[in-house]
Amino acid sequence: MNSTPLDGKVALVTGGSRGIGAAVALRLAQDGADVAFTYQRDSERADQVVGQIKAAGRRPLAVRADSADAAAVAGAVDAVAAEFGRLDILVNNAGAFIVAPVEQLGAAELDQTVAVNIRAPFLAAQAAARHMTDGGRIVSIGSNLAERAVFPGFALYSMSKTALIGLTKGLGRELGPRGITVNLVNPGPTDTDANPADGPNADGIRALTALGRYAAPADIAAAVAFLAGPDGGYVTGATVNVDGGFTI
């Protein structure tokens, strides 16, 4: 039996029951990792991802955790490390997507976005760093809107995703001496429930890309798999735009 790039590795994907997160979880499993993932509510979708990971021949674990809950975030990381006996890869994927004119946003929307999009990745990375050894990988999922906000109403969301650039650079510098890489993947328009490629605004969004099309979730997962695997071992502190040329 041929070996796969992530044989013997354990990965945790936050928000892994749907969309990009589910695609990342499946790709990492196909590459040989045992994969845990968090989900908030949809146990049916979580069960589907568990089945896909099993079908890839790897061990799955679904952990119910709200990324807005600081204790739940760190607790999920520790629980995965305890269950599998190690943690090699963390993918910060869970996100809050709140879009509205700035004058309509209140403290509740601000707090929710900061908690899920900024605090949770920080706390998950902090907890993961306690368990990771040489060769560990931390990959966060950002957004092309951190670099190019072409529509009104995205100030809060863009701000939160821009913060991940600083987190990635700071952690990359701090954890590099330990052999742990930290990187950021910024997807462009991706065909998910939140932004379907056949949605009412899809033609206008598609026209903003150089390639003239949406990504599939598997396109984003491929970039994550590269950064999580042995071929990505000399990349750290980097932002990788997987956006079809949206930001050029």
TrEMBL record:
Entry annotated with the keyword Oxidoreductase: yes
EC number, UniProt record: 1.1.1.-
UniProt xrefs under Gene3D superfamilies: NAD(P)-binding Rossmann-like Domain
Spans traversing the lipid bilayer: none
InterPro entries attached to this UniProt entry: NAD(P)-bd_dom_sf (IPR036291), Sc_DH/Rdtase_CS (IPR020904), SDR_fam (IPR002347)
Molecular function (Gene Ontology), one example: oxidoreductase activity
Alphabetically ordered keywords of this record: Oxidoreductase
Presence of keyword Oxidoreductase: yes
Highest taxon of source: Bacteria
Family: Belongs to the short-chain dehydrogenases/reductases (SDR) family.
Name the record gives this protein: SDR family NAD(P)-dependent oxidoreductase
Source organism of this protein record: Plantactinospora siamensis
